[in-house]
Amino acid sequence: MNYPDSVRIIEVGPRDGLQNIKEPIETKHKVSYIEMLAQAGCRDIEITAFVHPKLIPQLSDSVEVCNLLHRKQAESQRPLPAGINSVPPVPTNVGNYFGDINYSALVPNIKGLERAIECGIKDVAVFTAASETFNQKNTNTSIDGSIERFREVVNLARSNNIKVRGYISTAFYCPFEGRISPDKVVDVSAKLFDLGISEVSLGDTIGAAVPTDVEKLLEQVLARFETNTIALHMHDTRGTALANVVQGLRMGMSIFDTSAGGLGGCPFAPGAAGNLATEDLVYTLEKMDIKTGIDLEKLSQASRFMENILGYSLPSRYLHASKCAKC
Amino acid sequence: MNYPDSVRIIEVGPRDGLQNIKEPIETKHKVSYIEMLAQAGCRDIEITAFVHPKLIPQLSDSVEVCNLLHRKQAESQRPLPAGINSVPPVPTNVGNYFGDINYSALVPNIKGLERAIECGIKDVAVFTAASETFNQKNTNTSIDGSIERFREVVNLARSNNIKVRGYISTAFYCPFEGRISPDKVVDVSAKLFDLGISEVSLGDTIGAAVPTDVEKLLEQVLARFETNTIALHMHDTRGTALANVVQGLRMGMSIFDTSAGGLGGCPFAPGAAGNLATEDLVYTLEKMDIKTGIDLEKLSQASRFMENILGYSLPSRYLHASKCAKC
Q1: Angle at B274 between CA B273 and CA B278, to 5 degrees
Q2: How much is the ipTM here?
Q3: Would you state the CATH architecture of domain A8-322?
C-alpha cells in the first residue's frame, strides 16, 4: 500500500477544542498552550475565533490571545518583521508576523475578518455545512446564504494576502437530516472554491462516519478537486475517526484536522470524544513511516498542561497510555 | 472495496475484560452480564478462565459461573440435552449444554481443561506468545515449552469433542523485545495448528500496532493459513484497534475478539483502554453493511449494567455517545 510520505496536521485544539469547554480558561493559559503546541512542531494551529462573544464565550478573548502571543514571541527574540518595533497593538498587513507558524482563526463574516486582520492573522477559516437544516440552525441562513456572506470575506482576505479555508460541517451525517449525499458536498465545495477559497475541510461533525462513508465521499470529491486542497476533519464520537483518516490516507489525502489530547469532546455529552486526538494520529502516522513533524512527547506535554488547567483527563487514548510506564 | 458480508465477534469481556479488574464482582452479576451479552446476540462468549485462583483472583469463581449459568438457562426453559434432567452439577460430555451459544473458557493446562470439561464447557482457549521474554514472564516457560504443555490439552479436548483456540500474545510488539518478526508469529501459529488447534488469535497485547503492522503480519500469516482460522485480538491502548481491524477486514479477515464497553482497560494504567470495545466495532461494521448479529442497544445495556456494578465509565466511545441524546 502506498501512503503519502508526509501529512499536514491542522491543530484545532485551541479553537474547536476549547470552544466546547464551559469552564473559563485564562488567556495566558491559552497562549501557553498554543506556544507548547508550536514547540511540539505543530505548524498549522487554529488559535481562536472572531465571533460574537455571546455565541462562543470561551473565545471572546480572541484579540487578547493574539496580542499576548505576538508579545511573547517578540520577547522570545523571534525577529520582528521590518518596520515593526513593538507589540501590541499589531498593525495591519505586517507580513507573516508569527514567524514560520500558520496561526489561523475562524471568522464568520467580514467583521470577524477585519478584527482578525487587526490582530495580524494571516490564515482564516469560514464555515458552512452540507446539510441545509444544520446550517440554518447553526448560522441562521441557508447554505447559499452563508456562501454569499463569504464573498466579501474572501475578497477582503485576498486583497490582504490572507488565505481562506472553508469548513463544510455535516459532510457525512447530519443530526437532523441523517446521511448527506456526496453530491451535496461536491456542490458546496465547488461553490467555495469558486469564491476563491484555497482549502476545503470536510467535517464529520457528529462523528458518525465509517470508512465506507469516507470512501464513497472521497471518490466523488477527489474526482473533482485536487487532493491537496481537501482536508478531513473527523470527530471520534463513536471511535471511528482514526480508521476514517486511514481510509483518507489510502486515497491520497494528506491534510487532517485534529485536536491535541482530543480536547473539546462532544459539546453535548460529558466524557464523550470530539475531534480526533492529535496524539493518536501522530502516533499512528509516525509508526506508519508517514512524517508529521510533530514531537509526540512535547505534544503530550501540551495536553497534560491543559488537563491540569481543566482538572480532568482528555480523551486521547495515546495520552492515557503515555502516563503508564508499562503500556 | 470488498469486505466480508459478515464477521464472527468473540466477546471476551467476561474473561479478558474482567480479569484485569481488581474490585471483586459477585458471581451472580457476572452471570447476568453474560446473559445480557447472549441476549444482545453474542454467539461466542469467553466467560471465564480455569486458572489458579492466585493468578487471577477475579476469575476464581469459574465453576460457580458455569453452574449458575447452566441453572439459569435450564430455568429459562431452554431445552436440556437428552438425559440431562437437573443442574448442577453438570455431567461430563453432555453435548452442547449451553444451547446455540459458544461459551468458552481459557485453560492454561490439562488441569484447567479437566475442570472446564466438568463444567460443561465445549470451547477452550490456550495461550502462548510470539515473544520468548513475554512468554517466559507470563507463563514461566519458553514458547516451545508452552506448546509442549498444550499437547495433552489438545488431545484430551479433541477426545471430548472440544475445540481448542490458541492465543498468541505479543504478535506485533512486546514490552520487552519491541517489534516482533512476522516470521516468529507464523512459526508459533504453525506449531499450534500442528497440534490440532482449530483457530489462532493474534494479539496486540500492548496495543501498539498500526495498520501497516497488521498488513505486514497478515501478508505472511494469510499466505500460510486459511483466513477463517485466524482471528485478530486488538487492544485499543493507543486508539489504533479499530483502524487495525479495518485493515484486517480489507485482507479478508472475519474473526475479531472484542470486549463489551472496552471492559478491562489496561491492567497497568487506570483509565487507559484495553480490548477494542465491541460497541465501537459493531457500530462500524453494521454501518459498513457487514453483519455481526449483535444488537447494539442491547449490547450497550450489558455494558451499562457492568458500569453500574463497577461504579465507573467504560472506555467505549460508542457507549459514551449512546448516553447523549444529541450525538
Answers
A1: 95
A2: 0.92
A3: Alpha-Beta Barrel (3.20)
